[in-house]
Amino acid sequence: MKQYIKRLFSDSAAFAIATMGNKVVAAMLGPIYVAFLTGEGEIAEWGLTNTITLILTYLSILGTDMAMAFYFYDAKNLTERRVYFTNAVVYSAGACLVFTIFAFLFGAPLSEWIYDSPRNYANLLPVAFLATFGAVIIQHILGYARYNRQVWMFNIFSMAYVIGSNLLSVMFVVVYDMRVMGIFYGQLIGQLTVALILIILFRKEFVFRFSRKHLTDLIQYGAPLLPTLLAFWVMTSVSRPILYHIDSLLSADIFETCVRLASIIVLVTSPFQLAWRPFSMSIKEREDAPQLFGLVGRALLVVGTLIVMILAFFMKPIYNLYIIGRNDQSLASGYIYVWALSLGTLFNVLHNVFGVGLLIKKKTKVISYGFMIAAVIYLAGNLLLVPVFSIWGTVTMTVLAYLFVIVWVYLKNQKVYPIDFRFRSIMMYLAVFFIAMIGVTWVQWHEIDSAWIYYLLAFGVTTGSVFATGLFSVSSLNRISHLLPKPGGKG
User: For the chain, which residues make up each domain, given as ranges?
Assistant: First the structure.
């Protein structure tokens, strides 16, 4: 088991290079967007457009990227693997192109319906959709590179298209004062350019032969996940139009700023998520796989939640740096919401671990049902709570909905692929964590002097609960330390 633990950590560390580079650039450029999108609602409209392109990506790819994670290892030979890959790329790109043509034909009336703004957004959706066409191709090709463990290929081009697109967007926003439209013009040029380069580099991997069987395999595996993805879209995106249209443009701007900053937790979760799927599928036949899955799930939960807590301690100065370019203080209160949004991102990653047996046994519909129920809970909760509690209604439902998903997939997973996650200990630990974080929020909201005393107490109690609840023991931590790759070692 030792070599597999080391491989997971090594792959996560390798994939972290691109993620960290992209997030560092986003952290540096984000304040520029915040400073120049000064019209009320503009930050929210930037986020609202991204929510639309996200659902476009889901509808175009139709889960075939996730199916490739399975069929990459299940294919009989290299030729069949390439057939799966080609059919996945062509299908997804073709579907996205159809949506893009639709946007060019009906972009103007759609924009009037979506945006409550005096600004001219007639060409915004067509430009954003065409940029997404490039992103869909990039996502498939880089996924294929990741499964091949072409780490540097993945890292270089992940950074190239994210950083390149952002730099172009900044140019259009700052130099040409194109505001929200400028952001998506930058994405359009950057993503189409990188997509073309990747197609050229991976041209030998394409087998230009349509195969109904292979495409059917991909869709039959991936399509049942579409309701999950749509439900995930509801849980990550529907709060934006609710705040934008029901609460206020200012609340929508604050929330969008918080979401951008909360994504810093992706520095921890994204490398793991990229490495986890191919790793878990590659060891699924091992006898000790359930033991390994249980260990990873508990470790990720503890490490992730403690990082969320530490970030919350320092979030106010970090947040103030993020909005430093604003001449007004309209966004200043947003820092208190960031930890809950970060926790939602962590919980979303954890469901992949607690439900790993469902993926191995091809019970993906069960995951879909859980996300659909959670999405209904989230939507209903937002509609009820946002008019009363504003942003607090949204962040509360974010935590509750994702926690429901974790419990759901765990219960269903145990029926088909039992794993000892010590779930009772997990729930007790989370109860302590939530109580501590509610206290942190109260201290920050009331700007209590000497807040650091409470911070130390909260961190100490939460850390102690890891051992008090039986989630981990000191001896188990020693065993884990021996499994981790040593600096300069071969692991």
Answer: 18-223, 234-485
